[in-house]
Design brief:
single chain; 377 residues; alpha/beta; Rossmann fold; 7-stranded parallel sheet; 6-stranded parallel sheet; 17% strand; elongated
């Protein structure tokens, strides 16, 4: 199949999933065409069966805000027409689904029928989508999609509650590539740059937005380090970083908390950690937790959204109510205070991540594409 994938090319979960999906499909022999405004951060170097089409964003003085949706639709028309694509797969509803609908109508006027699949990733439904100014457009585009998928049962439920859609929503979870663990000696050398051998190393990865409740990460860590010698790696950046740095000074944690900044591939940062903290207000899936579990790192998280579909309470980590820092701290201490218990949780986290192997999820997308194409004939 010749598949066009439309995505945000940034560090966000939807862009990462869309890029990794495209790379995996290309490995299986499908021809993949990424369509977006800059090269996806996880795309990497030249790869067989992968093509990248950049959406040129114009800079006309007439426009206070550039019409990206229109330019994206035009690029989609061009790529479908001249690369002879079979199907479009748009990730994140806004504005990709509406641009796909526009492109489909333009192509139909030229005698070209192109179906499109819309994948919902979370904030396009749970945050942005709830804005009344977006609701009519999102509802329309969901109903005009040839198929709709969501990354969790929780997100499917939210979508059906907030939008009057007549489309079946297929739940296809996010996935992870399970690789062989890195050399232990190599990881130990990296780890020693951040923590002594007698210390535990905790980690958090996000874009430091309010929805991630990053202040709860620091408050949970403050409880842990009172009982257990430990360090905290804060990976990422965003609007809450200044506030976090101020909190570190107020709680005398500046020598315990290490701000790493944005990291293109977080695998090695996670692999040297003992515990991952994810106290988010909401998560449609919890991809960051799954990435941690895939390298044998248990997770302390909130029990919101799709996280319980990933992190199994008492097995791969623990779940707490949103904002319950005391419970998160107690659970973290429980795992970290005993070497054998920590080892057991690490093994269980890795085993749970196996359920989301790329090899298990990829065929679900291929089957959906074929169903859509067969219905479109």
């Amino acid at each position: 199949m010749k598949i066009g994938i439309v995505l945000y090319p940034t560090f966000g979960g939807s862009g990462v999933v869309a890029t990794e999906l495209g790379k995996a499909l290309a490995k299986k022999g499908h021809e993949i065409h990424f369509i977006t405004y800059s090269q996806p951060v996880r795309l990497g170097s030249f790869r067989e069966n992968i093509y990248y089409h950049e959406v040129a964003v114009s800079d006309y003085p007439l426009f206070e805000y550039q019409p990206y949706e229109t330019e994206l639709a035009s690029k989609m028309v061009d790529v479908v027409k001249y690369e002879k694509l079979d199907i479009l797969h748009v990730h994140y509803a806004i504005p990709h689904a509406s641009a796909a609908f526009m492109a489909k109508q333009i192509l139909a006027s030229q005698g070209i029928d192109i179906p499109f699949v819309t994948t919902l990733h979370g904030t396009d439904i749970t945050l942005v989508g709830k804005d009344p100014s977006f609701e009519p457009v999102i509802t329309f585009c969901l109903n005009q999609s040839d198929a709709v998928t969501a990354v969790s049962e929780s997100l499917k439920k939210d979508t059906l509650e907030h939008f009057d859609t007549n489309r079946e929503i297929h739940v296809i979870p996010n996935f992870i590539g399970i690789e062989e663990e890195d050399d232990a000696e190599h990881l130990l050398k990296i780890r020693r740059r951040y923590a002594a051998d007698h210390e535990r190393l905790l980690c958090h990865v996000s874009n430091f937005r309010k929805v991630k409740r990053v202040e709860d990460v620091l408050l949970t860590f403050a409880l842990v380090q009172k009982e257990i010698p430990s360090k905290l790696l804060m990976v990422g950046d965003g609007p809450e970083r200044v506030y976090l740095e101020k909190m570190c000074r107020e709680h005398n944690l500046c020598d315990k908390v290490i701000f790493v900044g944005k990291v293109r591939d977080t695998k090695h940062v996670l692999a040297i950690s003992d515990l991952f903290l994810l106290p988010s207000e909401t998560e449609s899936f919890g991809l960051a937790a799954l990435e941690a579990m895939a390298v044998s790192v248990p997770v302390i998280s909130s029990n919101t959204g799709g996280i319980p579909e990933v992190n199994t309470h008492g097995v791969s980590g623990y779940l707490s109510n949103v904002g319950d820092v005391q419970d998160m701290g107690a659970n973290a201490i429980h795992i970290l205070s005993d070497d054998q218990r920590l080892k057991d949780f690490k093994q269980a986290a890795r085993k749970r991540a196996e359920d989301f192997r790329l090899e298990n999820i990829l065929p679900q997308y291929e089957t959906l594409y074929r169903e859509v194409l067969s219905l479109n004939k």
